[in-house]
Model the fold of this input.
Amino acid sequence: MNLILVILINIILIFIIFVVLNHKIKKSSAPKVLETYAREVDNLIVELNEALDNAVNLSEDRIKELKRCIRKAERLLKDPKLEKLATTTKKMPEDSKEEKETAVEDNRNLIDKARHLFSMGHTKEDVAKHLNISKPEVEFLKALNKE
Done:
């Protein structure tokens, strides 16, 4: 009787183990794994498309801003008072990238300094003298600050 009970319990345990393992095998079968990976790839594609759209929108906004700045500079350069400045502006150095970056940074610093001096109430002559630049250049910087 004990032997039959032990055999019966073993058969039941083997059946339970078989059912559990069979379920796990079906759950992790190739089609299920492929489906899971396909969903993950689809989600990645959606995220990449969103990131690309954001980058494109940002680029378009920057292009619009640059075009606006170019139009503004062209309008200012057409001003007869500033025509002399346009013909006497310094050329950007062509030697190296570092020199170009330094020149651009110097121009930004000059614009910031002029803006600060104007905000303190200095006249064009004071600003020209303080920054060691010509009066037409000061007028150009002031026109840039107005718009």
Residues 28 and 80 are 78 Å apart (CA to CA). Residues 31-78 form one domain.
